[in-house]
Amino acid sequence: MTIMRIGRAELRVLDLEESINYYTNIIGLELVGRSEGRAYLKAWDEFDHHSLVLQEADSPGLDHFAFKVRNEVDLEFYERQVEQFGCTTKRISKGTRLAEGEAIRVTLPTGHQMELYHDIQQLGKQTGILNPHPFPDEARGLAPHRLDHVLLTGEDVKSVTRLFTEALDMFQSERIETLDGEDMVGSFMYAQNGKPHDIAFIKGPDNKLHHAAFKVDNWYDVLKSADLLARYDVPIEVTPTRHAITRAETTYFFDPSGNRNEAYSGGYITYPDFPTITWTEDKIAQGIFYHRREMVESFMKALT
Question: Does the annotation count 64 as an active-site position?
């Protein structure tokens, strides 16, 4: 039984047309479909029909995020697993959203909505699969490879970590603990794909989105991303820097509705037999912003 990867996120946005313009022309995603009140987008290096859904709403934030499993057998297995863990589940009917089959929606201990699915139409990559070039002929904006991860906030980081590692067979790459080791205030977890994280939680208000991250190729592309953001007057929160947690390069900024985005590159490769890296909360600023080693004031306050 395997959860393969984070497959999509559905963000609530205030103005759908403005958000489509931002996510297509500045982020550089492809608009692949629309339904009532929703727009569906994908990155150039993704096979599936969409990885980002924009939902027009009265307030910004995260409607849900979703993990892709291999098949129906896995879907039923993990449905039982999360129910036995004590989470509330419900079935989402095929066709509820464009190009998607049936899914299972789970309410997490932090109040977030997560879905598990396996059935989604594939559109393919812009580069194709026969003798492909390493990049597409045309690219717009930041031109990310994929939706990489989401970071969320919640009060009970320990319980949500147990859900993912015990019921969903995922792995914890890094954690942040209180100085006495009695509580967990940060958790970074991944499916069996070698990434530093597909999902992360930081202690804070329940059911809030911290950011959705898009994978760009390298450090130069993080710098180029910041250049493009500045050119188009996108609010930049953190200029290009390095994380010590995950060892990735990053820049943070905001979409027109106030949802935080990240352009993310690098990061190490990890495996299930690797021990979990531990940080203490007194070093959290160093872990997040390795160069300046101090927190940006808005970083834990600007949540949607």
Answer: no
Reported residue count of the chain is 304
- 100 catalytic residue (yes or no): no
Q: Is 1's pLDDT higher than 80?
A: no
Choosing from 49, 50, 112, 197, which is the catalytic residue? 197
CATH code for the structural domain at 146-300:
3.10.180.10
- Asked if 149 is an active-site residue, the reply is yes
243 flagged as catalytic: yes
- Verify whether residue 10 is a known catalytic residue: no
Among 294, 176, 300, residue whose Cα is nearest residue 241: 294
CATH superfamily label, 3-117: 2,3-Dihydroxybiphenyl 1,2-Dioxygenase, domain 1 (3.10.180.10)
What does pTM read for this prediction? 0.97
Q: What per-residue confidence (pLDDT) applies to 42?
A: 98
Point out the catalytic residue in the list 40, 78, 190, 252: 252
Q: Residue 173's closest CA among 157, 148, 158, 194? A: 194
Q: Is 262 a catalytic residue?
A: yes
Q: Is the C-alpha dihedral spanning 300, 176, 189, 287 positive or negative? A: positive
Mean pLDDT of the chain: 97
